[in-house]
């Protein structure tokens, strides 16, 4: 994120190719200029929300990353990108939350969405933060529009992470009530969070992005919030609806991290509108490639 804001990373606005009314392919080229973490890569990722209805347990998001030699341009590897996409997206939300809640006490975390991103965010946030509701152990709330899916995820997480209690909520409104941090990670095309449900100073990581784009939060939330983004070029290209609404972006998270933008006041509602960055995939692909070489080829 810091490299992006210091312009040591190149990622042109990604291309979006629709294959039908709900599905699309994103082409995400990126170059990160760093001898330890840098790489030249292109992630190809399909987003097919209807896969859930095919009954074959197919992921809705499927990614592969092509990694190239920066000097010769020769293809070095094609790396499966599903796990990378999950982890790097949750990592970006962790960083945004760390910097946007630095002066706030965090008690209540609400996650809306119990799919791949909902799950990885729960895992990452229980690891990095200490959400603790009054008179309770560490607690993370989870809601999904299909409650059964949230119940299954909650039961799985409660078995895996005994230091935290995961609790299923049937109502999205009750789930976000009094929340200090909210994560939205769904394909909702209509808002699932309303401004009047939020308390002062709430921070929201808005992760979901369907074809009708960035629609999980009500317009009034965007208008009332300080909205941060991951990269300006992507935001200009993809968040046209928010721009037309009159939303001014406060800045990139990378700029906030390096002190180039002053943080919002504690009572201000903040939104990190996560688009996803090609260079995050680039850095992860390089790391995976280096580990593979070390472990299996001893180089
Ligand atoms: N910002 C970024 O970098 C990234 C963003 N994403 C976005 O994050 C979102 C989640 O992705 P992922 O977890 O991989 O996908 P999954 O298919 O694994 O999960 C999607 C979740 O959204 C729920 N959902 C589907 N339709 C609706 C609806 N109309 N209203 C409310 N909830 C709904 C699903 O519930 P059910 O299955 O019960 O219908 C499920 O819990 C997507 O929008 C995706 O595009 C993904 C990767 C990176
Ligand atoms: O950056 C990504 O990866 C994605 N962004 C939005 C849609 C799904 C994948």
UniProtKB/TrEMBL annotation:
- Which GO cellular component term is one of those annotated? cytoplasm
Catalytic reaction equation(s) = L-pipecolate + NAD(+) = Delta(1)-piperideine-2-carboxylate + NADH + H(+); (3R)-1,4-thiomorpholine-3-carboxylate + NAD(+) = 3,4-dehydrothiomorpholine-3-carboxylate + NADH + 2 H(+); L-pipecolate + NADP(+) = Delta(1)-piperideine-2-carboxylate + NADPH + H(+); (S)-cystathionine ketimine + NADH + 2 H(+) = (3R,5S)-2,3,5,6,7-pentahydro-1,4-thiazepine-3,5-dicarboxylate + NAD(+)
Question: What is this enzyme's EC?
Answer: 1.5.1.1, 1.5.1.25
Q: Which InterPro entries match?
A: NAD(P)-bd_dom_sf (IPR036291), ODC_Mu_crystall (IPR003462), ODC_N (IPR023401)
EC primary class: oxidoreductase
**A Pfam family matched in the record:** OCD_Mu_crystall
Which GO terms label this protein's molecular function in UniProt? hormone binding; pyrroline-2-carboxylate reductase activity; thiomorpholine-carboxylate dehydrogenase activity
Self-association state and partner proteins as the record states? Homodimer. Binds the thyroid hormone triiodothyronine (T3); T3 binding inhibits enzymatic activity.
Family membership: Belongs to the ornithine cyclodeaminase/mu-crystallin family.
- What name has this protein been given in UniProt? Ketimine reductase mu-crystallin
- Species the sequence originates in: Asbolus verrucosus
UniProt lineage: Eukaryota, Metazoa, Ecdysozoa, Arthropoda, Hexapoda
């Amino acid at each position: 994120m810091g490299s992006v804001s210091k312009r040591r990373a190149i990622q042109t606005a990604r291309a979006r190719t629709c294959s039908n009314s709900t599905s699309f392919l994103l082409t995400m080229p990126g170059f990160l200029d760093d001898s330890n973490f840098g790489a030249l890569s292109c992630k190809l990722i399909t987003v097919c929300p209807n896969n859930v209805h095919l009954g074959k347990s197919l992921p809705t998001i499927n990614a592969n990353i092509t990694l190239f030699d920066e000097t010769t341009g020769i293809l070095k590897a094609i790396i499966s990108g599903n796990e990378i996409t999950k982890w790097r997206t949750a990592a970006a939300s962790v960083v945004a939350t760390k910097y946007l809640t630095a002066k706030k006490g965090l008690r209540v975390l609400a996650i809306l969405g119990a799919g791949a991103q909902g799950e990885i965010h729960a895992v990452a946030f229980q690891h990095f933060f200490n959400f603790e509701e009054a008179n309770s152990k560490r607690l993370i709330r989870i809601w999904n529009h299909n409650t059964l899916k949230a119940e299954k995820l909650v039961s799985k997480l409660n078995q895996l992470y005994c230091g935290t209690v995961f609790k299923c909520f049937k109502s999205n409104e009750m789930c976000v009530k009094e929340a200090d941090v909210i994560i939205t990670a769904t394909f909702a095309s209509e808002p699932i969070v309303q401004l009047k449900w939020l308390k002062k100073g709430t921070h929201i990581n808005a992760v979901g992005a369907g074809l009708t784009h960035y629609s999980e939060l009500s317009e009034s939330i965007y208008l009332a919030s300080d909205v941060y983004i991951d990269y300006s070029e992507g935001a200009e290209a993809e968040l046209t609806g928010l721009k037309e609404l009159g939303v001014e972006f406060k800045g990139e998270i990378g700029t906030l991290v390096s002190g180039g933008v002053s943080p919002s006041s504690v009572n201000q509602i903040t939104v990190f509108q996560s688009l996803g960055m090609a260079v995050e995939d680039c850095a992860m692909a390089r790391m995976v490639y280096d580990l593979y070489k070390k472990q299996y080829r001893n180089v």
